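Sync notes, pocket subgroup
Present: LS, DG
LS reminded everyone that the earlier model was apo-only. Rerun requested with adenosine monophosphate included. Inputs:
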Amino acid sequence: MLAFSIRGFAGSRTLNRPFNRTIASACHKAFETIPSSPIRVLRSVESVRRWRKPHYLDHRIVGLVPTMGALHEGHISLIRSAARESHHVVVSIYVNPAQFGIKEDLASYPVTWESDCKILAQLDRELADDGGNLGRISAVFAPTTPDMYPSGFPGQEVDSKGSFVVLTPISELLEGGTRPTFFRGVATVCMKLFNIVQPEKVYFGQKDVQQTVVIRKMVRDFMLPTEVVVGPTIRESDGLALSSRNVYLGERRRKVATVLNHALRAAESQYLNGSLDRGAILKAASSVATDLLNKQSALSPEKRVRYEIDYISLADPLSMEELSEVNPTEGGILSGAVKMLPVESPQPGEDLGHSGGPAVRLIDNIVLKPLAKV
Ligand code: AMP
């Protein structure tokens, strides 16, 4: 029976070649794809649902990599992980206004659709050539704000009314202390994306450690049927964590932007050398950050870089609550945020960075792994 239907299908393909070509070209026209690739571009919730259904019935694993575009090696590494473990990788590209505060960089956030498409098409070819992958990039989901907020966008204000996913107290700590609407926006958009794409697995970067804790908590507390996979932080050779926002830095600030990573690494050394005490661990980090700031302050305004340390934290890996001492069987998370201020006295022809080099907030973290098992 099976052999017969396969033969019959092959036969009809041979006999009806012109007819099938017509269907193929009609289908080709019906689906938007990324140029020079088979990657589908899905722009509406409905189109994702239509694309998703047969893969659900076929028990194919769908992996989702949520991004805001301006793709770099950090995103690419998550997509590679997803392709190793999923039959179909969906990359979402959506700059979600709800996670930007009213005074933040939503208007200037880099939007690089064309180069993102080229990166994805090239990466997809590499994934196809690499026999170790279960799947490739099947689709990009690039919705609009009216699609994502069908009742209307609720606004970016702290007291905006609307349908939000809020996880407390985690969303109020650290990043949430400085950016009170950030995790509300992230959790809300991720809940929407998970409901639209219905992925078996979702991929997030360690670079945004508190985000990974928020997403894991959301998945657990709302019983979402998806597995959260966290990929390592990808860095430049000098240690700076890759970020779409690094384009704002310009040459002068870029050289100093490693300060946070250096500070966190100094704190990590304290821990690895046997210190468990919060004071001792964090002092190592703040010495590095303040010593460099003092050196910069001694330079002339045409040369110096100014920054403010927002926080340097030593926190519990599951709750992100501050620790007074690291439990060596549980480890901890060292994390920090630094605000690089716009350069003073820009020099003629100086590369100030994207959008004229506004203030840039950089974040980074290091996981202090457990030293011993009980
Ligand atoms: P974004 O486009 O900045 O929202 O980031 C999308 C995803 O990429 C998030 O899960 C981030 O944590 C992750 N990501 C961003 N930068 C890096 C990096 N340098 N290394 C690893 N993952 C990253």
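DG: Residues 244-368 form a domain with the Pantoate--beta-alanine Ligase; Chain: A,domain 2 fold (CATH 3.30.1300.10).
LS: Residues 1-27 have pLDDT under 50 and may be disordered.
Action: DG to write up.
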